[in-house]
Structures are given as C-alpha cells and as structure tokens.
Amino acid sequence: MATTTKYIFVTGGVTSSLGKGIIAASLAKLLQAQGYRTTIQKLDPYINVDPGTLNPYEHGECYVTDDGAETDLDLGHYERFLNVPTSQANNVTTGRIYQSVIEKERRGEFLGKTVQVIPHITDEIKHRIQILGKSGDYDIVITEIGGTVGDIESLPYVESVRQLKWELGQDNALVIHLTLVPYLSAAGELKTKPTQHSVKTLMESGVQADILVCRTEHELPQDLRDKLARFCNVTRDSVIQSIDASTIYDVPNLMLTEGLDKIVLKKLALKSETPDLTRWNAFVERHKNPKTEVTIGLIGKYVELQDSYKSILEAFIHAGAENEVKVNIESIHSEYLNADNIKLKLSHLDGVLVAPGFGERGIEGKIDAVRYVRENNIPFLGICLGMQMAVIEFSRNVLGLKDANSTEMNESTTNPVIDLMEEQKTVTDKGGTMRLGTWTCDLSENSIVRNVYNAKTIGERHRHRYEFNSDFKAQIEEKGMVATGLNPDTKLVEIVEIPSHPWFVGVQYHPEYKSTVANPHPLFVAFVKAALVHKETKKDVSMAQNK
Ligand code: GLN
C-alpha cells in the first residue's frame, strides 16, 4: 500500500480509438493484482454535461453507475476488469467542469475576480482529478484523458496534468502516452514519426511523457524501440508495445509480458511483485476454450454499431465463459423485422435478447420478435425497453388489448400498459432526470429470478422514464405473465416472467452493467444456460423426427 495516493495520467496521441480505456483498465488490473487499491477516472473533453443525452451513434452506450451517474462506456471496462464499482467521480466532462465553475461564479465565490481557463477551469479539473485520491480509498488513481493531444478541447486537461505533475512532485505522478506505430505495407515498415510528433505536441504544452505505449499490428523490434526512446526522451524500458489482441481480456497479460506494471511502479517508487492473476487467467482460459456454442439474437436498432450494446456483449462473454460455451451474437435490426420474415430470422436461434432503447423507431419489429419467441418457446431476455415490449406484446396478443402500448410511443393509447411515472410527468429537462442508478427489488418465491439470483432482494441499475402500469397488473397476471420482482417501496414492477414458457424473463433494469469478469451476471449466465438447453432440446426433437 502506498502512503500517499499516486496519480497516473493516460493521454492519447496520433489518432483516437487506440484503446486508452483498455490499456488503463489492464494496467489497473495488474496493479490491483499486486495489492494496490486502484481506480480509473475518465475525463471527457466534450461540452455535454454527461453522455446521457448523447445518441448511441455519437458515443456508444451510456454506462450507468450505482449512484446513478450516466457515464462514458469506458467506465464499464473499468468495472468489468477491476470488479470495483465506479461513481460520478470517475467521469468528468468539460461541460460539467464549466457548469460548476459558472455556478460558483454566479454565487459570487470568485470574489469579483475575472474567471479564466487558467486558473479557474484548470483548478476545477485538478480538484476533480484528486477527489478519488483524497477519499482515502485508493493507492493509485489512473486518469484517462479523452481525445487526442493537440486537440483544442483537450488543452485545459493537458495543462492541468502539467500543473499537477509539478505540484504532486517526483515519484507521485507520471504520464503514459498511448500512440500508434503504423505499418506501411508498401514500404514494409513500421513508422515512428507519428509518435515522435505526438510526443512533441505534448511537450509543447510542457508535459513530458514518461512511458510510451505503442499500438502496433506487428512486433516492435528492439532497434525501433531504441529509436523511439532516443527521440522521445524516455528510457528504453519505458517503450511498451501494445500489439493487436484477439480479445481485450488478453491485454493485461500482454502488458505484464511487456513489463508495463513494473516500470510504472518503479517510476512511482512503489514495490512490485508478481501479480496474482489466477482467477483472471481461469476466465480467459474458459473464454478461449469453449466446449460448444449457442447463437443468440440481439434485437435492437443500433445493432450495426458494436459500441451501442457494449455491456450486453461483454456480459455474454462473461456468461459464455462461465458456461464454457461460445456465445455467437446475431445482431438483428428491429426496423427490418416483421411478421413475414420473423420465422426466417429467428427460428434457428437458441435465445433472443430484446435490447434497451428509446423512441418509436423499430419497436413493432421488437414486438413481433417477442411474439415469435413466446409462441415458439425460445428463451427470451428483455432488458428495459425489451421488457416493456414483452408486456405490450402480451397485452395485445394474449389479453386482446389491440392498441396496448407505451405512452412513450402513443400518448393517446386507451391501454397504456407502460406509462410515465407520476413524478416524471412534470420533468422537462432531458439530462440526468430519468430513474437512474441502483434500486432494490424483492423477488417472488418460485420464480426464475429467485432461483437465478439465489437471493430474496437484489439491487440493480436503472435508466428509464417509463414503467409497467400497475393498473394492468391483475389482468396480465391472470393470463399468465407474472410480476416476479417488485420495488419494495413503490411496488413498481421490475421483472416479468411467463411460467408456462421454458425461459421468458423481462427486466426493467440493466443487468449488463453489473457483469464483470470476476462476477458474471447470474441472469446472463442462466439465459445462456437456457439457450444451451433449448439447443439440445431442438436437436433431440429433430433426431426423433428423423428416426
Ligand atoms: N425508453 C424506455 C423508457 O424510458 C426504455 C429505456 C431503456 O431501455 N433504457 O422507459
């Protein structure tokens, strides 16, 4: 354990999408596995106060923490790797920084001074960087600076790093610069020039990178590492190669082989030992050596973008490893699903997940999909909007309430089986006003979920405005869809199941946010198991038919 909190800053150069989040999470894993209490923070240079109002096409999934913060999807990686919850303090945007500085100015807290980027904005950034460190909960705080050095919008962050590095003093802070070493196939060569330039750009702001992590498609030979060290003012052991990996879960071991943890700890004057990655490696081993496979349909409207359902895809990887099966995900665009093609698109699947979402686009396809899997006994998991679609489908096709809908899609429906909560009706602001964060839920006896969670009460994270309308609960239950999870205080329905179906579960919350390598989410584990059972049953039936 360290006596003072140490700070590691991760900056990015040359291009975006180099995987700063994964490098930060992998390093954190290696430090955690040596006994250091480590957390990771992401600073995002955009002006939105949080990513909650961003379209998934812009910035991928919005990740929700226990305390109800709507955050960048990198926080999902941090939690999945470290198995330690993050919070609002782990994600700060330029919008939030300016918002608090402007609020202070309005309250007169700057005593008549001219409010400026330096020192007021940079002070606020430095304060936000140190909140986690000062909490006393962490030995090491890794701060990932979003964007690429040289961007106008990143400048106040880089300036704050410059100041903080100076203030914290030697051995207490360091900068890891993640860059790209491209391979020019025409020349057959790896090129160091972009890295030299990006290190130079960082230096123009007064920040010297201490360690270079170089993304590359090919092994970096020693002479190239020497060249990078020489041109970029770093020691030779500080040039770390980050070669493309087949899975992000390989990156901690790749960084271990490269000695990233060792050089970091040396520069921070901390002891290093061999990290204990036993459990991690057992997971990777299971993930890479599945005994069989299942195919699950992911029905949503952002399916062409991997990042939009990041946590769901990762939760399937964890659940697959737990079951020792490979989970093939077939992404199905709900806008192109209809009663005519539904059989063609879904009949071969071993399970179907209907994804979360907002707005009307693509919902009729989702409803058709729920009907198909309900009538054909295909395991089903509905998440948030997916659960709401299951309730609508059941109301329309089993209860015969033909115009049953959510008031999100049709305000004037006579059967609003999904409706706005009373306290949402007066809300006009879109940002941070949904039902967010962890809420407790009581599970009914003899239900799938009670068995799956093996608990009477659970806490799961929410992000929605609309709810199951309890006025319809009795009618819906009478026809065979039962509410098996209720909020203990408000009695809001959080989970529905159909007991006559082999495995049909809809949840108003987002289980995917809580799935980690160390704790694969039990609902995903059980869903994958149900898909496996379905696959086996299908095989038995077709064998019997062929006899
Ligand atoms: N749009 C729905 C609501 O606001 C569902 C949200 C979601 O799927 N996260 O209630």
Mean pLDDT: 95
- Low-pLDDT stretches: none
Question: Which ligands does the model contain, each kind named once?
Answer: glutamine
Portion in strands: 15-25%
Fold and architecture overview:
- The chain is α/β, with parallel strands linked by helices.
- Helix content is 37%, strand content 21%.
- It has a 9-stranded mixed sheet with strand order 13-12-14-15-23-22-21-18-19, sandwiched between helices.
- It is globular, with a radius of gyration of 25 Å.
- The site of glutamine has 10 residues, from strand 19.
Give the arrangement of secondary structure elements.
Blueprint: E1 6-12, H1 20-32, E2 38-44, H2 56-59, E3 63-64, E4 70-71, H3 74-82, E5 91-93, H4 94-106, H5 117-134, E6 140-145, H6 155-168, E7 173-180, E8 183-184, E9 189-190, H7 193-204, E10 211-216, H8 222-232, E11 239-243, H9 251-258, H10 260-267, H11 278-288, E12 292-300, H12 310-323, E13 325-333, H13 342-346, E14 351-354, H14 363-375, E15 380-383, H15 385-397, E16 405-406, E17 416-420, E18 435-443, H16 448-453, E19 457-464, E20 466-468, H17 473-478, E21 482-486, E22 493-497, E23 504-507, H18 522-546
Parallel strand pairs: 1-6, 1-7, 2-5, 2-6, 7-10, 10-11, 12-13, 12-14, 14-15, 15-23, 16-17
Antiparallel strand pairs: 3-4, 8-9, 17-20, 18-19, 18-21, 21-22, 22-23
Bound molecules: glutamine.
